[in-house]
Amino acid sequence: MSPLIWTEFRPDLGKFDEFQHFESAGGGRVLQSLYRGPEVPIRLIMTANGVEWSELPLPDGFHVADLGSDAGASIDLAGDRWVAFGWDVTRDPHENVGREVWFSDDQGSSWTEVNVETPQRSEPLPPYAIEESAVLEALAWGSCLVVVVRTSTRLDLEALLADRGLMPTGKLLNFWEPSRHGFTLTFIEEFPSEGESVRPSRGRWRQHKQDVSHEDLGLSIRQQELLQKRRDTVVRIYAGDGPSLPMTAEYERWVYKITGTASAEGIVLATQGEWQALLTSADGLAWDEDPLDSVELWGDGGGDGALWAAARTRKGMRFDRIRYQDGQVPVALKEGVKNLSSFAAGQAGVVAAGLTGRSARREPGLMQTRVRTAGRTYTHSGHGDYRADELWLGWSRDGDAWTWQPASEAFGVDPRRRISVRLAVGKDFLLAEVSDFGMMWKITRDTYIPFDPSPTADGHAVAARRRWFMARVG
Fold first, then answer.
1. Phi/psi at 3 (nearest 5 deg)?
2. Closest to 24 in 3D by CA, of 455, 395, 359, 430
3. Does residue 411 belong to any structural domain of this protein?
4. Could you tell me the sign of the dihedral formed by the alpha carbons of 181, 132, 258, 283, in that order?
5. Is residue 435 located within the same domain as residue 307?
6. What pLDDT score was predicted for residue 385?
7. Half-sphere CA count of 367, side-chain side, radius 13 A
8. Residues 333 and 437 in one domain
9. Helices (H) and strands (E) in the chain, counts
10. Model confidence over 62-88: pLDDT tens digits?
11. Structural domains in the chain (count)
């Protein structure tokens, strides 16, 4: 295979000039987003040819499911039925999650809310118990909608301690663990309020431990169970034509992420967390479970019927293709590449930006997913800057045969310059957004570097030059 030919071009975005971050979205489309904080609905623009962009109409008040300026927009455009899932910042996370998923049968001109039929509880929650729900995945398989919801129940121990008079003044509960006669609680100093000066102190974050008995806490049997397990988590799958979706499967497992895709043959869901599995279904009603091997990064945008995964090995980077009936199949190994800074898939194939040399060791491109409170999952991908000669671009039509080229040659960049690359895959084209941060200066050990924090100091912020490239795939 011959290396791709990348051609630089300057898109005329007009009023969309503030939009950023390429994202493969299925159906041969690529998105860019405008993110102005978690309290402002996200805006998206899309292209089917890489040149002409138009705004994607979204449900009123639509927000990204993952908070963060570089987070995915959680939207499936692969089929005739489009699906979007997000969250409304005005909604209490303890309320029903039905208003977090929408579908459109007219390419976004109108949206219909999905109602997931949450099962009724057999018994009420005990005092201080909190139930939180979040949509982890939503997609369309023809006219069938598939929605995956994680519901976690935990004990609000901090509130219970405060009501029992067991919360030390000026402390925050950091951790707890079972002990012989109850629990050992670990507290840290309370964070200073905004504007409060903090006196440096080696003991500022010193931990304080306290043992409490079951009698001190006054817990019921159910409350003790929740505290021992830390959480009860149920993953439920809902499927149907909509707008109301019945539950079709339930698993008492904890996961932080679910990645799915659908093809003509069936549906695939990959779970990650304490439970790593591949769930497959031919109708959305009956589900089979198979093991899932290690996955460090998913190809952005899926692959219109296939999931693409990457994981590090001792020799390099392993690429897997996951499809209904085939399961997880390793299709390629790129030796020498120890990390990825960008990874995307779509109708035009799979593309990756691989790191070699010092860049691969200095900063991981495969960032861990972090889970926070209020039933929200937060993910952030790594798009750092690297030496152009240590960044390699790989592309494959089907995942089996790959062609690789240095980013310095692909984009005509001096090998010593530091760049970052974000990739996306469309119908018959690939897009690359290249940010050029310039040279990295060498500084000897005895070089004196003065420091002046005043606004008048001789210094300036470095603005990265943003360049666009396109590669056509026949």
1. -60, 155
2. 430
3. yes
4. positive
5. yes
6. 65
7. 14
8. yes
9. 5, 36
10. 765 444 445 566 888 988 999 998 765
11. 2
